[in-house]
Design brief:
By secondary structure, the chain is an alpha+beta fold. The protein contains eleven helices and five strands. The protein is globular, with a radius of gyration of 22 Å.
């Protein structure tokens, strides 16, 4: 097990490094970002292209730019770091445990089908019609919540859940059992239909919100994808069960994190 202090240091950096930072260091870093960071501009509104372009050129005319740094260091690691899943445990004065499981998406990230990945996530753990919600939470009452989050930019799937401390093993086993169900093709036509309807609804709602539209197009740019929302919806509707099974089979459990309550002294 890794202790909590080491985990926090890895995520947040070292205290000594933070103490060495001053205004000049931060200002220099800020100026470097302005010169070298790639710039993506998205506009949603009624103004014409020429009008928007003129306004942007005027606003950014004084910005000093150098050679953009296109190597952002965001390589996707498709496979687990170690042979067995790494385990992290922390204790805090909390009344509800937090159990998170991190998976690598595996070989499907070599040529990813993002529509199928989104649908798999919806079927497995995202939303009230998912296997995690209906089985781990509702049918077995092993957690207060359980859901999966797809991190397409890094090739990860994260399952987050809130549990009673004593139900750690049961909850973990059932979360993995539901993944195994997808891997073996235990997916009903009704489950697949619900997942498609939920995902299509979420995608269609993006078109009604400018902020969501901006996030969508930024995400597509980062992924190097050009599909519109309607094109993604069409791909979701055409996705078959076998594609979800193959995605599930490629998942590798890479890390387990458990936050539990601190033991009372003398207990």
């Amino acid at each position: 097990m890794c202790d909590g202090e080491a985990f926090a240091t890895y995520r947040l950096g070292a205290e000594a490094e933070a103490e060495r930072m001053d205004a000049s260091v931060l200002t220099s870093h800020y100026q470097t970002l302005l010169k070298t960071a790639p710039i993506e501009i998205f506009y949603s509104g009624t103004a014409g292209v020429d009008q928007v372009e003129t306004a942007l050129i005027k606003a950014l005319n004084g910005l000093k730019r150098g050679e953009p740094n296109l190597d952002l260091g965001t390589d996707v690691r498709m496979n687990s770091v170690t042979e067995s899943a790494r385990e992290f445990a922390e204790e805090m004065d909390v009344t509800q445990g937090k159990l998170n499981l991190g998976f690598r998406l595996g070989e499907c990230m070599e040529d990813p089908n993002y529509a199928a990945l989104d649908l798999f996530n919806c079927l497995y753990g995202s939303g009230v019609s998912s296997k995690l919600f209906l089985n781990v939470r509702e049918r077995l009452s092993l957690c207060y919540y359980a859901s999966s989050i797809l991190e397409k930019y890094k090739g990860l799937l994260i399952v987050a859940s809130g549990i009673e401390f004593a139900k750690y093993q049961e909850a973990k086993d059932e979360i993995l059992a539901q993944l195994c169900a997808v891997q073996t093709g235990d997916i009903t036509d009704e489950e697949l239909l619900w997942a498609k309807r939920a995902l299509v609804t979420d995608l269609a709602m993006i078109k009604d919100d400018q902020h969501q539209l901006e996030e969508f197009h930024l995400g597509q740019t980062i992924l190097g994808e050009e599909d519109s929302i309607d094109e993604i919806i069409a791909k979701v509707e055409q996705t078959e069960k076998a594609e979800l099974v193959e995605i599930a089979k490629g998942l590798q459990l890479d890390a387990i994190y458990f936050l539990k309550g601190a033991e009372e002294e003398g207990a």
